[in-house]
Design a protein that fits this description.
Blueprint lengths: L1 H17 L4 E7 L3 H17 L3 E7 L4 H14 L5 E5 L3 H6 L4 E2 L1 H8 L10 H6 L10 E6 L1 E6 H6 L11 H13 L4 E5 L2 H12 L6 H4 L13 H13 L14 H6 L3 E7 L3 H7 L4 E4 L17 E8 L4 H14 L2 H11 L6 H9 L2 H4 L5 H6 L16 H16 L5 H24 L1
Parallel strand pairs: 1-2, 1-3, 7-8
Antiparallel strand pairs: 3-10, 4-10, 5-10, 6-8, 6-9
Helix pairs in contact: 2-15, 5-14, 15-16, 19-20
Amino acid sequence: MRSFIAALSLGTVLSVSALAAPVEIQWWHAMTGANNDRVNQIVEAFNASQADYKVVATFKSNDYTELMNQTIAAYRAGNAPHITQVFEVGTATMMAAKGAVKPVFELMAEAGEKFDPKSFLPAITGYYSTADGKMLSMPFNSSTPIFYYNKDAFAKAGLDPEKAPKTWPEAFDAAKKIRASGHPCGITTAWVTWTQMEAFSAWHNIPYGTQANGFKGFDTEFKFNNPTVIKHFETLNEMQKDGTFKYGGRTTQPEGLFLSGECAMIATSSGFLGNLARNAKFNFATGMLPYYPDVAGAPQNSIIGGATLWVLGGKKADEYKGVAKFFTHLSQLDVQIVNHQQTGYLPVTIAAYEETKKSGFYEKNPGRETPILQLQNKAPTENSMGVRFGNLPKIRDLIMDEVEAAFAGKITVKQAMDNAVASGNEELRRFERTAKN
């Protein structure tokens, strides 16, 4: 009888265990459109592949700064998600938040999951790692800014639709001809501080700031109030007068001007390609970012953008185990290949890039290799590794306050850049005081 009761008890325990709810993992993200669809596909595939964990992906905002602020507020309130998507310029802030984050190299090691930083593209590994090569976050939607143009508008203006402008003078000349052909707008740009200042500086191998653009530590100062940047923005400002250039907003808003056909050219993220391929009603193509040929050494190499996945601190061991399992799924070759080919984001692993190239994908889809070739155009210098300054999301807003004042004719471009450097440096000092305490 005792053996029967024992067996019955054991069976009851096994049944309860078998029916136990999976450990839930919360992931907050900022992906929209086709990229949001891809997030849902990844999560559904992982959840269907096992029964122990359930990832719940939640779109919180299409503004990376807002998502980061929401995450910080949630952490302080004790209800942060397990995973949050943080754009590249939030890296220094996250690095300084000791205890608030769980570094990915620790997470994977403690969970016994295989994780090799050398499997990722070097530019990605370098940006998201400590000085001794320890990766802090999981690469996800890495991008770089590239140039898009409307081939139909080029043809109408008598321009070669198979040839993207290589230099800024060529791009501006094309914009004027397109405007003259009756098109409402020649050129626009999204993510102004990223594409036209941070990446612009790297592409021309000029410093954005001191201390290798912040990679060497604190005591940094901004240097973007230089003649090359000032001349570029003075040209954009002048082109606004007749609609040759149209300013459409600080982040992704100008992408709508290109997608609608209003503006014929745009500099924006390679990650825009997925939405563009799905929704554009015209023929388009891509090219590398334009450059000024009179700047010595240009073009250099572009820099990483997009975002990675950061793990928040203070979670349970079994939850961290689930996060690590999910990251292993995310790193699988087939997952990475589909991510790259469907979204336009970089193939973050070397294997995904090599396999995509070997398959003939780039030959069948001209321009899709553009971001990778641009990123690897030359070996990075201290000016072109990227930018890693504390509180950079806030500093970007301070810069745009000044840029918008110049575009509105309230101050000169030089005054705008000088003011932005001064206020940016003040913010760096505040960040350093907080981080050192």
